[in-house]
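Problem 3 from the worked examples.
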Amino acid sequence: MTPPMNRPDRAAALLKARSRATATPADPSWPLCLAEDLRDIRADWKASAEVCAEAAWAARSAGHSVLGLLSPEDVTATDHDPITARALAHLYLSALRFDFRCPTLQHLVEQLAEPMPQPLDCYTRALYAFALLGQSRPEGLAVMDEVLAEAGEHPKTLHVLLHGLWLGQDLDRGAERLLALSSRPALATGTDPIVLFRVAGALRRLGRYDEGLDAVDRAIDCLPPGDTSVHADLVRERSLICTARDLHQHQSHTRTSSGVPS
């Protein structure tokens, strides 16, 4: 049995595993190597979520999505040890999330849950909530509440849920729920451009246009230099807020001019 690591050694091992996984994104063997590294470290679900989400995003950004390196059968295979199986699921499901493939993500998690003797880990259930929320399915709200009761202030998990609320445009009180979630300590730093981006969209949906513009401008200010992909999303959101505000003002002016109370 591998002896337990102390905290500094474990942190260094996780950093090394993350670096190895992102060094050669075109190498088809890196997902399994990362899963095995996490097994050797005896990573818990939180560490697995953090490393796998970042690795899946880096691979996608480099043009080598995990979806092209693993298959659903790799994720649902029953011959892996629990830590390896969980890491492969985190990688593949995260890649589905980044591509907004909500029905596929939902179906795969339901497949994973069928033969499992124990409940799925908290992060996998958060990804399931994302899949439901992203389709504006109300049962996603119940799954989200269950996850929140267990996740505490784990940032990666909260970001997944925030993403689902942002994507689910037809959820009951979805924008209000997003703002409430964004106020939790792990997210309410005021310096996370992704959180501010999601908040700006929620404020736009609520007709709070000036607050939305303030949020998106702060998000742009918080971006690292050269982050062109997120910058484009923020500029697009800013344009949407300005268009919605201008349309609202025009409609209000038209109603007032015609004598119709606004």
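Problem 4, a separate protein:
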Amino acid sequence: MITVCSLAIGLGAGPGFLFGFVGPALQEELRVSRAGLGLLIGLFFGFTGLTSLLAARWGARLGARRCLTLNMVTVALGGVAAALWGSYPVLAVVAVMAGAAYAFGNVGTNLAVMAVVRPGIGGFALTLKTAGVPAIASVLALGGGWAETAGWRAVAWALAVAGGVAALAVLLVLPRSGGSAVTVRPEPPLRRGFWTLPLAAFLFICGTQPLQSWMVTYVHDEAGLPLAQAGPLMAAGTAFGLTGMLGAARWADRLGARRRAVFVALLCVVAAVGVAGVLAGARWWLPLLAAGAVLGVSANLAGAGLTHAVVIDRAPESVGRASGVTMTGYYAGTLVAPWGFGALADATDGYEAPWTVCLVLLLLAAAAYGWAHRMLPVQPTPGTNTPGTGPPNTGPPNTGTPGTRGAGPGARPH
């Protein structure tokens, strides 16, 4: 079950990564500016956020099987549309539709995983499931090199075929009775000062998302590497980032709920160091760029997942409301970051300014998580005797509907 869900959640994010990893090929064929390329990525993740509240309400009623089938069929059809009619307007429609469907994929995978794991390991199981995102991103990054020889449409065809295969796997593995009983209980209002968490999430994703969406294009433009070399470099960074993501999740569990926000603040600083390495390495020393990419992507993957756990730590009585508010900030960042990075690169005719802005945003994000740590003490989790240790089946607080385990907008994009 976890293997199929990991494949599905990774392929669900595939269209968003596709635009960035084959960016130079798209720019050459369609004459797309950096801002236009960033807008495609932003539309995908932005519409994931806009649809997440709807998915939180209807995902549990539809069940995991239907949610994931919907997501994978949309990926397959989107890949076909992009390959056959790959104009910019068509790609924008594909980004919107695939992003909206990805919100249901987030809900479906969380429902499926939490239905089969034993209590006490839900957080790690959800992290393991989410590992499919960087795994598929690594494959698509390699596809960026393929796009230079076979064309970016060949990569879109490959994504379409993979989406179709994943849809069949979902239908074969997930049970038909994939629904989940929805019980609604009133939630208390969020505590004063909770706004610091959505602000921190916004700053964090604005600072780290370009490490995923712009790296291949950046290395191609600034370091002069062909796509056949830039793609594997990004793939290696994402693969190492996957290891860092899993290790950070285990480490944060050992530190406990009270220190989790501080740990995420530290990850923001690590990501800032990675951005500095990426900025300096393209001009001076490519191994420094590679090391910076690994640090930054690892911190991006780990920090985004642990942000959801911080939400549960600080608002266990209002997980649905807190998740929705926090993810509003998070997905607003995913909408703004790729487009803003590209627009600033166009305006300054280079990448120094946008990477510098990313670095500053990450330092501000670290301060915001530290502020949240001080303003929002860890609360006892309902139904537990030990304050602040988190619920038995914690992971990302993907519970947009109160009382529904794992069915909401909390699942992140990469």
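Solution to problem 4. The chain is about 75% helix and 0% strand. Confidence is low (pLDDT under 50) at residues 178-184, 383-414.
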